[in-house]
C-alpha cells in the first residue's frame, strides 16, 4: 500500500538475530511510515517477518522517552531536567557510592539491542573509566551457555557456521529451537534449501512446536535431559564405528575420557531418562553420522538449562566426532536471540575485554590498556559477576547502584517478585531506555531517554557473524539521544575519561575497533575476530560482511575452523566428558506440571516495542498458557478459561488454551508478558554460564 513514501533508507532489523536487511520508507515530512526487505541482501533476499514489516511503528510508539528525568526517591514524582543535570547527578552518585563502598558497589547491566560501536564504547567506559567489575548484559539470560560451550570446546566464542550451510547439509538436527516462530526468515532459508534437495530434519523438543510439526522426526524429550540424549548419540556412533577417527586424531584432544564417559550412556539407559526409545536414538545417531554433512542448530531449549553449557559442548562433541565443523553443511550453529547479542559478545567487554580478549590474560590486559591509555593494573584480573549474580549481590547489600541499559529485568528475570524487592534496595538506579514506561523505571532515580534503533548509526552482528549496518533514518525523538552520545558524555564526568579518547561518530569508533581487532591469537594464527578489512561503506555495499575479514580481503568468511585449527594454543578442539546430573526442580504431587516458556512470532522479548505496534499486538494481545486437554479435563479446566498458575515462588493469572501441542504433564507460557510466567519461574543457574534454567520448573494449576 502506498503510504506516501518519498525516500527509502537502509537499516538492519532491530529485533532478532536473523539480521534481515531492510529499507525504511519516509514520507514527505521525513516520518518513518513503513519498511520493506532488501532484495539483494544475502540474509533475507527481500523477506521480512511480521515484526520487521511493522518496525517503523516503534519509532513513534507510545511511551517513548523524550526528556531526561530525575527524582530523589523512587516514590517521588519525576521531574524533567536537562541532560547536563541528569548526567552530572549520575556521575556524582556513582562516584559517591564507589568512594564509600568500593568500585564494585556500582553495577552495569546492558543488553543485546544497542549498536556494536555503542557496546564497544560502553565497555571502554565501564572497564577503563568507572572501573566496576560488576558488568554484564542480558545475554546471560539467552546466549551465555552458547558462549561458554564454544569457549570450552573450541577455545573461543564465535558460531562456526552460516545460513548457507542449509544448502549443503544432508541432515539437520535442531535442539530446543522453534525456527518458524523465533526466527521466521531463517526458517524460510531452510525451506528454500529443502526445495532444492531433500534432507532429514530432526527436531528435539518436549513440545510439538511449529518446527516439530514440520520435522521428519520429532523427539519429544523429557525436559532437562538433552545431555543424556547427546551422550547416547555419541555412544552409538563410537560403538558402531561411525565416527570420523581421522578428524578426531588430527583435530581434537580428550578422546579417551570422552569415550569412557559416553560408554555409560547406552541407548537403553538413555531411553528411560529421556523418554526417547532406544531404536529411535540408534536411528538418529546412524542418520547423523552417515550423512555426508550434518549440522546441529539450537536455541533456548539447550541454553536455558542447569547444564546449558554442557549441552552446547555435547553438541560440539557430536559434530567433532563426525567431522562436522567448518565444512559446508557440517556445523554447530547456535541460533542467537537478539539483533546484536553477537555484538555485545564480541565488543562490549562484559565477559572480558574487547575483541574476544580475556581479563585473565595479562597480555590482553596490556594490549587493551596501552591502546586505550589505561594502566592495565586498573583492570580486574578475572571477570566479575554475571547478571544473574548481580541481583543477589544487590539483595545482600554488596551492590548499591545499578545502571540498566536497554534491558527490563522486571519482566525478563526469573522470579520477578524477588527482583522487585531487590531493586527497592538500591541507593541509586539509572534506567537508560528508549521507552520511559519500561517496568524498571519504577525503581529508578534517573531516566536517560535513549534514541532507538534506526535513529542511530552503527552495526549489528547476526547469528552467522555477519556485520550489517543501521543508518539513522530519522532524527532522535524529542530530546532523546543515541546511546553512544550518552556514554561519551558520561565518560567526560571522570578525570580518567577526559584523558582518554572517546570518538563521537560511529564510523570513528568502528575504525578504532578495527585497529584493536588485529594481532595474533593463542594458536599463533591471526586473531579470529579480525575486522580490519571492513569499513562502514563496505558493509553497506555488501549488505553485510561475515567476520573475520582481514585487511586486504575482498569478502568476509562464511565458516570458522575450515582448516581444522581451533583457538586453543595447540590448535586442537576439546572432546569433553560431560556427565549428566539430575538437578532441576521437577514436578511432584504439589506441583505436578513442568513449566516451559518461549516466544510467539508476533512479539519480541518484553514487548516494550511489539506490545505497542499495530498488528503484532492485535494478533497476540494477551498472555495465555497451553495445557493438554486430558490434564484440563481432570482438573475441570475449560478452553479459554482464566486459571491461576502457581509455583513455590508466586502465581499468575493466565488464559488457558487447550491443545495437544503440550504433553499431559506440561504447561507452556510465552515469556513476553509482564507479571506472568516469570512470577513463577525458578531459574536455577548453569555453573559455567550462570544462565537460568527458565524451562525447567514445577507448577500447579488452580481454577479461579
Ligand atoms: Fe527482523 Fe528477525 Fe523478523 Fe528478520 S526474522 S524481520 S530480523 S524479527
UniProtKB/TrEMBL annotation:
Give one Pfam hit by family name: Molybdopterin
Q: Does the keyword Cell membrane apply?
A: no
Give a Gene Ontology cellular component term annotated to this protein.
membrane
Q: What does the entry give for GO biological process?
A: cellular respiration; nitrate assimilation
- Specify the 4Fe-4S Mo/W bis-MGD-type domain's residue ranges: 6-63
Gene Ontology MF term list: 4 iron, 4 sulfur cluster binding; metal ion binding; molybdopterin cofactor binding; oxidoreductase activity
Q: Which residues form a coiled coil?
A: none
Among InterPro entries, the record links this protein to: Asp_de-COase-like_dom_sf (IPR009010), CT_Nitrate-R-NapA-like (IPR041957), MoPterin_dinucl-bd_dom (IPR006657), Mopterin_OxRdtase (IPR006656), Mopterin_OxRdtase_4Fe-4S_dom (IPR006963), MopterinOxRdtase_cofactor_BS (IPR027467), Prok_molybdopt-oxidoreductase (IPR050123)
UniProt keyword annotation of Cell membrane present: no
Q: Which cofactor does it need?
A: Mo-bis(molybdopterin guanine dinucleotide); [4Fe-4S] cluster
Instruction: Report keywords, A-Z.
Output: 4Fe-4S, Iron, Iron-sulfur, Metal-binding, Molybdenum, Nitrate assimilation, Oxidoreductase
Matching entries from PANTHER family are given as: NADPH-FE(3+) OXIDOREDUCTASE SUBUNIT ALPHA, RESPIRATORY NITRATE REDUCTASE
Q: Which family is it part of?
A: Belongs to the prokaryotic molybdopterin-containing oxidoreductase family. NasA/NapA/NarB subfamily.
Official protein name in the record: Nitrate reductase
The species is Parahaliea mediterranea
